């Protein structure tokens, strides 16, 4: 296992201001997938995660907003088993062949 | 007047001359080390810094020292004397120690600032992960060393050749540039050190739906057709884009991909590469010129390796899956002949001879039941137009392979057009095609065989009109999926002995070619599967 292994992060936010919330959501959509209204799954190497974290830090108002990051471990060990959804679930971008 | 040298390059030089060279050549790596390094420069709250005034990102220049640079922070005391504070992200598990490169860096920053007429009263390193500040007093010896290092850096940059990688040195295992430098691969022997190049968190995106349109919206690549959304993909997960046939790309999408230094390759729906787009910025402009010179003079040593590895891999695939022992024996002989071949003409003769024998028995690698039920025939390899489904499938996969080697060649700054086996004069991506050779059998051919054997593609996925066989959309998608599974899957590298994906292996081969060209790699060796 290396420091650069791909990890799965669950990211949730609580932002009252519409403009800032839209900005943060858009940023997160470029890295991963929206699984609930304000909850995202991002699969990335820690390097890219750090970059995302900095970008979000610059976007939010640290006095009123919050963004929660949860490291679910490496994708290799994780095997997508740590996520269980009931009801209607949204798709998470697969790591297999990407064909559109 | 000599050119001013960035202080960051001098610090690289102090760590390892080759790293200074790679940086100066524009090699960028996206690793944890680099990212935390960059983060460290965005000074977070440094609670130990309690001075009255603080300036961030202060640019400095000194013609006397011959350097330019930027201080992370400069603090002013009540007498307006300045203290330089540099931020470093040494991992917590290591001690917050001031290393030589750091000492040299602050010495130059301090020297330059003093040269600009500011009173400098001190220097310090702030270790962001340890939240520790360490003062760095400078002696005349430190200043002299820093000056020498500037001269060394100038020599490294002015050299004709890249400095060779360090040999079995501990510095490499914590170097951000190991994935492009390849110090362990240079001797072409098994690598004993643990390899720390991680799997990418990005994928090659294939756009295949005829008549669809792709564009970027809300940070994602979105594809739609006749107003209906077909799917989206996060832009940060893209490693490259391959466009198959009639798909429209928005200019915003192309710009976004290029801005990220990634490339787009366009193929026809039958798999012929029609063109590509690459970013204006790229590494190794100097070696690229050397590549043209080498290509013009010819490098039969490279050409021999491309052909020998290609034939060797054909022999291996046929031995494993086919039923033609005499042909395999003959291929092994041809493989050896290729290594001693005196000229390109002889090499082409060997290559043609091998291909004829290999493809003569190609059908024996398919399951007899599949051949019978699907009514597959294959007499000879026909490039374009394809005469039968197998040839059509092979053409398509060779196109996918070319797209990958193109990307590998472009990523390390080489010119796809200047080749060593294929003629550069024929307006083809000659170097990309050179690199394709050794991967044909283990990647493309084996993907085609698997796809037919497992029923992932069937004869009905093809249509034949006027003697030309074409592959349909469903078959194309099945082959792309099979291909992607293959290249993102790992194998035991026959030279280096570590597990690696086929896609990374292609990149490494491209970098070995670069090494041969820039003089740091004694010879090239093709990958021969066992
Ligand atoms: S990997 Fe080793 S040889 Fe290469 S630049 Fe880094 S320290 Fe130098």
TrEMBL record, chain A:
Pfam families: CRISPR_Cas2. Keywords: Antiviral defense, Endonuclease, Hydrolase, Magnesium, Metal-binding, Nuclease. Mg(2+) binds at residue 14. InterPro entries: CRISPR_associated_Cas2, Virulence_VapD/CRISPR_Cas2. CDD domains: Cas2_I_II_III. One of its GO terms (biological process) is maintenance of CRISPR repeat elements. GO terms for molecular function: hydrolase activity; metal ion binding; RNA endonuclease activity. Its cofactor is Mg(2+). Homodimer, forms a heterotetramer with a Cas1 homodimer. Belongs to the CRISPR-associated endoribonuclease Cas2 protein family. This is CRISPR-associated endoribonuclease Cas2. It comes from Micromonospora craniellae. The gene is cas2.
From TrEMBL, chain B:
Its cofactor is Mg(2+); Mn(2+). InterPro entries: Cas1, CRISPR-assoc_Cas1, CRISPR-assoc_Cas1_C, CRISPR-assoc_Cas1_N, Dna2/Cas4_DUF83, PDDEXK-like_dom_sf. Mn(2+) binds at residues 351, 422, 437. Keywords: Antiviral defense, DNA-binding, Endonuclease, Hydrolase, Magnesium, Manganese, Metal-binding, Nuclease. GO terms for molecular function: DNA binding; endonuclease activity; hydrolase activity; metal ion binding. Belongs to the CRISPR-associated endonuclease Cas1 family. CRISPR (clustered regularly interspaced short palindromic repeat), is an adaptive immune system that provides protection against mobile genetic elements (viruses, transposable elements and conjugative plasmids). CRISPR clusters contain spacers, sequences complementary to antecedent mobile elements, and target invading nucleic acids. CRISPR clusters are transcribed and processed into CRISPR RNA (crRNA). Acts as a dsDNA endonuclease. Involved in the integration of spacer DNA into the CRISPR cassette. Homodimer, forms a heterotetramer with a Cas2 homodimer. This is CRISPR-associated endonuclease Cas1. The lineage of its organism: Bacteria, Bacillati, Actinomycetota, Actinomycetes, Micromonosporales.
């Amino acid at each position: 296992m290396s420091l650069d292994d791909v990890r799965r992060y669950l990211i949730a936010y609580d932002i009252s201001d519409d403009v800032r919330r839209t900005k943060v959501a858009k940023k997160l959509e470029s890295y991963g997938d929206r699984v609930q209204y304000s909850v995202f799954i991002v699969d990335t190497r820690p390097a890219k995660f750090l970059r995302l974290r900095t970008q979000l830090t610059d976007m939010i108002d640290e006095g009123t907003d919050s963004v929660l990051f949860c490291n679910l471990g490496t994708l290799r060990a994780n095997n997508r088993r740590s996520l269980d959804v009931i009801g209607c679930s949204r798709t998470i971008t697969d790591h297999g062949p990407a064909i559109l | 007047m000599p050119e001013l040298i960035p202080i960051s390059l001098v610090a690289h030089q102090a760590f390892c001359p080759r790293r200074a060279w790679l940086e100066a050549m524009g090699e960028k790596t996206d690793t944890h080390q680099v990212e935390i390094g960059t983060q460290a420069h965005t000074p977070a709250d440094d609670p130990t810094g309690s001075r009255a005034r603080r300036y961030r990102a202060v640019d400095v220049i000194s013609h006397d020292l011959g350097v330019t640079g930027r201080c992370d922070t400069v603090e002013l005391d009540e007498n307006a004397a300045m203290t330089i504070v540099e931020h470093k992200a040494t991992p917590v598990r290591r001690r917050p120690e001031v290393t030589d490169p750091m000492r040299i860096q602050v010495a130059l920053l301090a020297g330059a600032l003093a040269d600009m007429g500011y009173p400098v009263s001190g220097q310090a390193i702030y270790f962001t992960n340890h939240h520790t500040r360490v003062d760095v007093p400078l002696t005349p010896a430190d200043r002299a060393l820093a000056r020498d290092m500037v001269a060394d850096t100038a020599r490294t940059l002015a050299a004709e050749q890249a400095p060779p990688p360090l040999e079995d040195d501990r510095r490499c295992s914590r170097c951000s540039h190991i994935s492009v430098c390849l110090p362990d691969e240079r001797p072409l022997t098994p690598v004993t050190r643990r390899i720390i190049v991680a799997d990418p968190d990005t994928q090659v995106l294939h756009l295949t739906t005829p008549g669809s349109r792709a564009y970027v919206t809300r940070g994602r690549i979105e594809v739609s057709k006749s107003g209906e959304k077909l799917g989206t993909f996060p832009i940060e997960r893209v490693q490259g884009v391959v466009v198959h046939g009639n798909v429209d790309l928005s200019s915003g999408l192309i710009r976004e991909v290029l801005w990220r230094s990634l490339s787009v390759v366009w193929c026809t729906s039958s798999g012929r590469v029609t063109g590509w787009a690459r970013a204006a910025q790229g590494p190794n402009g100097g070696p690229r010129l050397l590549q043209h010179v080498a290509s013009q003079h010819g490098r039969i040593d490279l050409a021999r390796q491309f052909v020998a590895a290609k034939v060797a891999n054909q022999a291996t695939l046929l031995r494993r899956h086919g039923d033609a022992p005499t042909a395999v024996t003959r291929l092994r002989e041809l493989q050896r002949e290729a290594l001693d071949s005196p000229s390109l003409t002889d090499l082409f003769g060997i290559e043609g001879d091998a291909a004829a024998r290999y493809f003569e028995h190609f059908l024996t690698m398919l399951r007899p039941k599949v051949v019978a039920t699907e009514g597959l025939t294959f007499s000879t390899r026909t490039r374009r137009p394809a005469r039968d489904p197998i040839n059509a499938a092979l053409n398509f996969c060779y196109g996918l392979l070319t797209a990958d080697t193109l990307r590998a060649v472009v990523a390390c700054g080489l010119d796809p057009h200047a080749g060593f086996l294929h003629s550069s004069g024929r307006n083809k991506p000659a170097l990309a095609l050179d690199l394709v050779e050794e991967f044909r059998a283990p990647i493309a051919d084996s993907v085609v065989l698997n796809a037919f054997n497992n029923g992932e593609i069937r004869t009905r996925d093809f249509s034949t009109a006027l003697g030309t066989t074409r592959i349909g959309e469903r078959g194309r998608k099945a082959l792309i999926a099979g291909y992607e599974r293959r290249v993102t899957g790992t194998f035991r590298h026959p030279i280096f002995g570590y597990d690696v994906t086929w896609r990374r292996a292609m990149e490494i081969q491209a970098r070995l070619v670069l090494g041969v060209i820039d003089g740091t790699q004694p010879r090239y060796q093709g990958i021969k599967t066992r």
